[in-house]
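To the team - adenosine-5'-diphosphate complex, inputs and output below.
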Amino acid sequence: MSRVVIKVGSHVLTEDGMIAKRRMLALVEMISLLKAEGYEVILVSSGAVAAGYTKLPLERNNVANRQALAAIGQPLLLKMYQEQFEIFEVFCSQVLLSADVFDSEKPIAHAKVAIDTLLANGVVPIINENDTVSIDELVFGDNDRLSAHVAHYFDAALLVILSDIDAFYDKDPNRYDDAQRRMVVNQLSEAELQAEHTPNNEFATGGIVTKLQAADFLMKQNREMYLASGFDLSDVKSFLIDKVHNGGTLFTTTR
Ligand code: ADP
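Output:
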């Protein structure tokens, strides 16, 4: 049985400050299909703050408000997932983790027992960072690195990141028309991993850098990461179901 972690970012899950229900449904449908194909799927999902904001529009630049919005939004988000998974007769579950779970063996082992049990019973664990109790320095901040830890410690061979971009390019495709897609990446340079968001930096934006850091972490553990579009799921479906690599970028040390 092949275990895979799928991470979906808030750009994909939200539209105009609301949860993008149609895209969520497409994702849920794909996960149900993957399960039918014999995959064990763990979902790492953002979107709690955005879901909270639809009920109570608190100023989002403030940490206390974001914590409150996450607390309001997390159950709403899970309710939407539950309703949509029900259409495909799949059970889902909520697992909230704080970053420090991965600091020592005991809590990791403890959490893994729960994840293994859920998967063994055909249930999809939906993981998010516990934003309400996370302390600033401990926070992964973005779910890219959290999902890389989830893949490693819960023993998935592959992490799939579904993003607003359809692949990793040799430079930011939103700024350079001649950016070329990288199909397979075996190694990342320090410059790529440390890149800061400056106008002259061709690897700019926290967005891609945290994904590269996730890929680097996993490649060092002999695991793989695949980055593809979360808006159009055809590439990820071909990759996982038909085993055909049309689009997206595979980060691997073995292929
Ligand atoms: P998400 O919210 O979907 O997780 P982000 O928007 O945070 O993703 O990060 C993806 C963004 O990173 C892209 O939209 C793109 O503008 C930017 N980016 C910068 N450099 C690159 C690159 N070399 N290849 C791909 N995307 C890049």
